[in-house]
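Re: beginner question about structure tokens

> Can someone show what the tokenized structure looks like for a real chain? I only ever see the sequence side.

Sure, here's an example I had lying around. Input first:
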Amino acid sequence: SRLGIPLIEVSTAPVITSPEEAYKVAYAIGRILRATRKVKRGIGTVRQDLNISIKDGALIEIKGVQELDLLPKVVELEVIRQLHLLKLRDELRKRGVSEEDLRREPIKDVTAIFSKTRSKILKRKIERGGVVLALRLKGFGGLLGLEAAPGIRLGAEFAGRARAWSEVEGIFHTDELPGYGISKEEVERLRAELDAGELDAVVLVAAERERAEDALEVVRERAIEALYGVPSETRGARPDGTTVYLRPRPGAARMYPETDIPPLPLPREYVEELKRRLPPTLDEVAESLSKRYGLSKQVANELIDSERVEVFEKIVEETGAQPSVVASTLVEHMKSLKREGFDVEKVSEEDLLKFFKMVSRGELAKEAAPEVIKWLAENPGRKLEDAIDALGLKPVSLEEVESKLRELLEKHRELVETNPRKAASTIMGELMRSYRGKVDGAKLYKLVSRAVYGQSAARPP
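And the corresponding structure tokens:
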């Protein structure tokens, strides 16, 4: 457990062969777990870890993919990353780079070259007593900055490894220089100092001497690994689908049984009893919702995915509101407002229940739902009654509506007599501008149709 919360890990065999399949498997597992109604959801409560390997690559463990929709992209970018590293391996072999060359390369102090630098980063480090150290990487010129996809570069791999092991802020390399305030003249002096040829790269680190040396030794080791392709490691997922180095993959020595907790065999009878008590699958729940309430399968599944089935059923049963209207509000309106940036999760079930009770009593129109939800989302802690007052949605009497309708009939008398269909549309539009959210639109339409076509020889369309 973690902080007293029970954790469960579900693993699959290595049978998933595409990014899309990885998404479908994770989605299916999530639906099975949600069907139990005994698991939490949301960022931080559920995450996906991935083990990804390709031919001639390595097994890479990616930790902490929080968003299900991000899974295919993470898989795709990891495959691109590994293919890129294999391509760089082949190029390094063509250039004749050897491990021996990299191991005997000395780390040099080049602080003097940057004593008058305009680079704010280097200047700050030097002023605080740090040094600038450099390492030549024979044959790596042009390969550190080569980008296979946004964020996927060998230089980024070096920087991630250096940050993880030596806690430096980052590294510079000649594929990206001049830049960051480092001038062309400084780069030329640097390359001359390290005797770097056209196909060589130079990596710089500015920090306390010991930390800078550690960082460059880490870069050296990562450069050596590049000669052999893809190193097996554990990486962390980023929100954009790329990954960053976390630690080496654990070896066989770490794979041992838990010594403090003895195995607990489950009797076959107990397992069979659990099978008999399994809750319905979410597909079965969707089928039931469709049959009982006349909802489409799509709307039923969206209610399930948004975890609003219970509040939907409670509203329908306690208020008698039309199921399709309640479902539309809980799914379509909520989703649309969330896309617009409104935190609809702050709207309480209690206020939603009250809203539909008022709709059923004719005190509010169902068309008021989006504005009411939007107001409550922007004013957390306030109640439905506050929203009604603020939006001017207090109910109006039938007498007031009929009086307004008579005024409009008189205003558009000629149109009523010559083109009743257009007259009905015009009068309906003006009434909705006055009473939207206060009077049900369907009731208004019936009043308008009865009034218009009652004063015209034409029949309603």
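Each token stands for a local structural state, so reading them left to right follows the chain. The longest strand covers residues 131-137.
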